[in-house]
Hints:
The complex is a heterotrimer of chains A (about 270), B (about 350) and C (about 290).
Chain A: H1 2-28, E1 30-32, E2 42-43, H2 46-54, H3 56-87, H4 93-99, H5 102-105, H6 108-122, H7 128-152, H8 157-164, H9 169-180, H10 182-198, H11 201-207, H12 214-222, H13 229-253, H14 256-261
Antiparallel strand pairs in A: 1-2
Chain B: E1 4-13, E2 16-26, E3 31-35, H1 42-50, E4 57-62, E5 65-66, E6 77-80, H2 92-102, H3 107-120, H4 136-148, E7 154-158, H5 166-183, E8 186-191, H6 194-200, E9 203-208, E10 211-216, H7 218-223, H8 228-234, E11 239-247, E12 252-257, E13 262-266, E14 277-279, E15 285-289, E16 295-304, E17 308-316, E18 319-326, E19 337-342, E20 346-348
Parallel strand pairs in B: 3-8, 3-9, 6-7, 7-8
Antiparallel strand pairs in B: 1-2, 1-4, 4-5, 9-10, 11-12, 11-14, 12-13, 14-20, 15-19, 16-17, 16-19, 17-18
Chain C: H1 7-36, H2 53-59, H3 65-96, H4 102-108, H5 117-128, H6 133-140, H7 157-180, H8 184-192, H9 197-225, H10 229-234, H11 242-251, H12 256-288
Helix pairs in contact in C: 1-12, 2-12, 3-7, 3-9, 5-7, 7-9, 8-9, 9-12, 11-12
Amino acid sequence: MKRVSTLIVSIAIVLIxxxxxxxxxxxxxxxxxxGTSLFPTQLGFxxxxxxxxxxxxxxxxxxxxxxxxxxxxxxxxxxxxxxxxGTKDIKSKKLIENLFLIPLIVPPIVSGIGILxxxxxxxxxxxxxxxxxxxxxxxxxxxxxxxxxxxxSIDPSIEEAARVLGATxxxxxxxxxxxxxxxxxxxxxxxxxxWSLNEFxxxxxxxxxxxxxxxVFLYRYVGGYYISPGPASAxxxxxxxxxxxxxxxxxxxxxxxxxxGAGIKG
Amino acid sequence: xxxxxxxxxxxxxxxxxxxxxxxxxxxxxxxxxLLGPSGCGKTTTLRMISGLISPDEGKIIIDGKDIxxxxxxxxNLTMVFQxxxxxxxxxxxxxxxxxxxxxxxxxxxxxxxxxxxxRMLRIExxxxxxxxxxxxxQQQRVGVARAIAPHPSVVLFDEPLSNLDAKLREEVxxxxxxxxxxxxxxxxxxxxxxxxxxxxxDRIAIMQTGIIVQIGDPKEVYLTPVNAFVASFIxxxxxxxxxxxxxxxxxxxxxxxxxxxxxxxxxxKVNNLDSTVLLIRPxxxxxxxxxxxxxxxxxxxxxYLGGNIEYKIRIGQNSILRTFSPSINDFGxxxxxVTVIIKDAAIIKS
Amino acid sequence: MKPxxxxxxxxxxxxxxxxxxxxxxxxxLILVFLQSFDLYSLGAMKPxxxxxxxxxxxxxLKGPYLESxxxxxxNSALATIIISVISFFLAIFxxxxxxxxxxxxxxxYKIPLFIPYLIxxxxxxxxxxxxxxxxxxLSVTGIVxxxxxxxxxxxxxxxxxxxVWMNFxxxxxxxxxxxxxxxxxxxxxxxxLGSTFWKSVFKIVLPLSMPGFLAGSILSFIGMFGAxxxxxxxxxxWPQYMSISIYNDVxxxxxxxIASVQSVVYMISAILITYFYTKIISKIQGExx
Lengths: 266, 350, 289
């Protein structure tokens, strides 16, 4: 009985997960597909060529250079905060931790229209670094919570030992703490990177016409009144394939249950 | 109340037999203990009786019914856990009532039964408390109450006192025994603490690497251990090597030690006369002044323990005996001569 | 023991984050708030003059805005409930059962986490739009009327399906983590006391995993409540998620006043929901203490 239900659940999971992915691949490799038929009539690379000519390369570069910068900068501003909150006993600790959640609770469109006004006046629409800053809004809370959880788990007497041996606070953070909070940094980086790659609304509002990240590029083919499934799917394939690799790799080498756990406290 | 019969029970853990019980019969109402060091298979065996793990081979029969394939919830036995395993989201009353509610007992009867349990375990005023509010010792009582409440035929105990501090352990030990006697349930108890096993059990089974090495009542196991492992596990030991010289009576022999000393000894559990090891418990040795009659020895080492002094007395080139003597009788420093009287000795398997 | 530190000292370390958020987050919110009263103009320069007209327009019961807010709420809430139920059973499945190929399945269910939202939304648009495989399957088997729209529909069915698909892995991960924190001997004790496996799950595991479960679901819910991309691809022209409504008002109609009011109410709703939700969770936990 257990065997049968296990099999059913496993098959259901595989089907439900892969079906959408499968359809995207179908569309990506189809050149002719009539609305009434079940399968494409003709396969080919036309969609891929179309999007490459449409600027896929530029979008890939933009997305994959902005994301690491987002990770870097959110780490830089998060680490001192995570250090002081995680390793010390402060009265308003809970309050501060909750404050970090606010950027995730407030719908992005709300701050988006305000930033639109500021950026327009400052001439920052379509500015690369300005977009990085905007991506950091949602990435930083994840980075902070991850790193803070790591700091929390470190025995406070380690810092005392370091100080007693002559290390300044800065030295202590750099040489003692940073190596120890690497798990939190890694997991926070994964979240922050993913957030930046995914970010659509704010980049759409504030990045055009220069900053066309992958989601915005994709939007060109799915937004508006006419959806072009072919090219949209081709773009999607570019993102899905590396994602699949990462997922199966991660499952093999990292316990992603713990990665997710870093996002929520107890 | 129930009899338990275990036949050919085997459990493998990565190709090694973690538990291998050929035959075991536990009597109705008996307090039966599985005793042994960690890794000896006692917990594995207990968990197979409970149904929490399935054996690879063999049968478990309770009161004539083969329950080997039954899941735990159908076996009508309960378990008391080492870490108490009380449900943190329920109060004391609901914890004790849990088994009764699972058996669909009418709520009114549950009230009566739980109150009875609270009284029996002397935790009446704890009924409304949350689990985290009560002490370790109290949690333990709740665990026992919870296990007894549903009228199980057998209660299993998985090292229930190990998480209590030493003083508490002694107090609870005594109460547990009284309780079991009063309620007259068959108990299977697992522990690595020989004092616990000795005070609580009607019979003890000593286990080593998955097998039962000896079964007997506490006195029998203590005085007549079958081999050195059992002997050392259950009490203090002195082992003397040598040979059995001759039989004196039906259960007594004369033993000649490797240094030629003659000692009278009980045959013990040994059938043939080939054994070469003699067991002398430290308390079976009496020290007297060197001018008295007996085995001559010299003090090899001496350790002051407060009320007692631990002596190591050399009685031969290859034989040193360890014993205790009240500090009042000081037999002198290292090197002094003493006389050793051996009051009891037993042959064990070599 | 962690050393006590005064807040004023801590502030130094918090300064980078505080400065960052002040300019990129708090300032824009203030501007939006001011615009809602016409005290500031997000669009063309205008002299400030205090007015409540935009607020009146928003709270007009005959108007579209309250309906939009309500739609955003119930649609996300329904998705959250569905996700919670599915995730709970899946988490139990992964926690208790071991089988050959488990790590493959364990990796597979996490895939949606690594696919950008826009793409997931698009994929489900593919499957659920008329002619899409799932839509065909459901009509042919009679589960759904062939004429019923599953995407760009007034019930937001497509939105719910896509949201569930994208978010359930996160909840499963969270729940499995929570389950691992429950003492396994509790379940053993429950079984030796006569409860079957499923009874133990509902009477012991579920109550004990509730706090972690609820804490996780609130973030999930709020994320869906305020989201844009999924509603953008799969939503209908009416009713709209509030995020879409605000976006259109700003980019298409330049109606900054009403857009700001919607934003303010949207934001306050999200914060209030989170606040009351966490209050309820603490109350439940408090009752247990």
